[in-house]
Design the sequence.
């Protein structure tokens, strides 16, 4: 569905420009236009929403959305998502840490220490 892809592209551009409310509205239009027809499009839209929530420092909502995504994708058997979810969760923790959250700082640090793909010589993830 072209309408949802256009709305998602618009949301990404607005996010880059710092227009967070307009970006959020575009993600809502993208989800509405797609209506669950293409899971990958919804996934990209939800990840954009996580980015918006993270930027707005609405960390609990960002983690809640990632939890909901993880449950959905586990249900449909999309195992590749686990790596992406881990990365997106770590990005939320990094912003939380920069905002002074010591628990998030510890979680982010543990993620960095455990993730072998931060090593530039690593060509693939340790596990999925």
Sequence:
């Amino acid at each position: 569905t072209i309408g949802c892809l256009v709305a998602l592209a618009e949301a990404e551009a607005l996010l880059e420009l710092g227009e967070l409310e307009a970006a959020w509205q575009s993600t809502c239009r993208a989800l509405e236009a797609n209506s669950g027809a293409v899971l990958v499009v919804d996934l990209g839209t939800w990840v954009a929403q996580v980015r918006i929530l993270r930027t707005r420092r609405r960390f609990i909502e960002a983690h809640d959305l990632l939890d909901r995504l993880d449950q959905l994708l586990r249900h449909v058997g999309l195992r590749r998502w686990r790596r992406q979810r881990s990365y997106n969760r770590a990005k939320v923790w990094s912003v939380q840490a920069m905002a002074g959250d010591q628990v998030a700082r510890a979680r982010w640090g543990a993620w960095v220490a455990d993730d072998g793909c931060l090593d530039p010589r690593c060509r693939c993830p340790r596990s999925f």
Notes: The chain is about 75% helix and 0% strand. The chain has a mean pLDDT of 84.
